[in-house]
Amino acid sequence: VAGLASTSTVFAAEDTLTVGFSQVGAESDWRTANTESMKSTFSEENGYELIFDDAQQKQENQLTAIRNFIQQEVDYILLAPVTETGWDTVLQEAKDAGIPVIIVDRMVDVSDDSLYTSWIGTDALLEGRKAAEWLNAYATAKEIKPEDLHIVDIQGTIGSTAQIGRTQGLEEGVEKYGWDLLEQQSGEFTQAKGQEVMESMLKKYDNINVVYCENDNEAFGAIDAIEAAGKTVGSDIANGEILVISFDTTNAGLTDTLNGKIACDVECNPLHGPRAEELIKALEAGEEVEKLNYVDEEIFAADDTVASVTAVNSLEEEGEYAVTPIT
Ligand code: GYE
C-alpha cells in the first residue's frame, strides 16, 4: 500500500506539464482575448505550469523567450509568432532539445516544416478574399462602378500572416474587379496607429469612400479620425458615407457592425487555448496530430439585404469566389 501511495504521488508530480507561451504582445482586443483563452486553459487547476511571455510586438523578445523556455526544459513551447520569417535557428534549437513546438494564430515560414509539430490558427487569405467578395457584391447591388470605389488599406503588422493574407485578398479584388486602391500603410494592428494613418490619408485624398482595416482596433481608430474630420461612416457611399471593412468581430467590432459603423466585419476567432490543449493531449497520448489546423470563420455585415453574406460564407479555400448580390 505504501508503495502504491508513493507511486501515485510521483505520478501526480509528473502529471503537471510545463508550457512556455511566447505571445506577440497586447496590441489589440483580439490579442487580449487570445491571451485570456491561453491563460485560462493552461492554468494550475488544469494541471499546467504556464510560463507566459509578452514580446511587445518584437521578434527579438520572442527569440529570447523561446531560448529561456529551452533552458528551463519546458515540456511544450507555444509560439504566437509576430512575423512569418526568421524562426529557423531558434526552432532548430528547440528541436535539438527535444521540445515540441506548437504554433498558434499566425504562421511561420520555415525551410523545414519538421521544425514545428503543429499549427492552429485562421486562414487569413480566405478572410481577405471573403471581404473582397463582399465588397464586390455590395458594389454590384448598389450599382457602383468598380473604378468609383476609392479604397485605402490600413494594413496589419507587415510580415505577419494576418497582414499578408488580408492584404492579398484585397489586392486580388483590386486586380479582378478594377477598384481604385489609393494607398496602403500599416496601422500595426493598433487603434492609435489606425487613427494616425487614417488622419494622414484623409488629408491627402478627398475621395476616399472605402477603408479596409485589417483588424477591429485599426477600424476604431479610423472611425474616430473620419468622424473628427466631420465625415460619416456607413454603407451609403452614394451619399458621401465612408464604408468601413474590418476583421476580428470583437465585441466592440460587432457592436459597430450592428450600429452600421462597420459595414462588414470578418470573423477571426481568438479562442485557441482549448484547441492547443487538445493537440497537447493527443501528443501526450502518443497520437499523430494534423500539421495545419484551420478554424472555421464567417463574415458579418451591417446590412445583410445588400449582399449575400451566406454566399460569401460558403466560399471554399480553393473554390469559386463569385458572389451574387441580392436584388
Ligand atoms: O486579427 C489582430 C491581432 O494574428 C489574427 O493579430 C491575429 C491578428 C488579429 O493583433 O487583431
Molecular structure report:
- By secondary structure, this protein is α/β, with parallel strands linked by helices.
- It folds into two domains: 2-121 and 270-294, Response regulator (Rossmann fold); 124-269 and 298-313, Response regulator (Rossmann fold), CATH 3.40.50.
- Helices cover 42% and strands 18% of the residues.
- It is built from eleven helices and twelve strands.
- It has helices spanning 2-15, 29-41, 59-71, 88-96, 124-141, 161-177, 191-204, 216-228, 251-258, 273-284, 309-313, and strands at residues 17-23, 48-54, 76-79, 101-104, 118-121, 150-155, 180-186, 210-213, 243-248, 264-267, 292-294, 299-301.
- Helix 4 links the parallel strand 3 (76-79) and strand 4 (101-104).
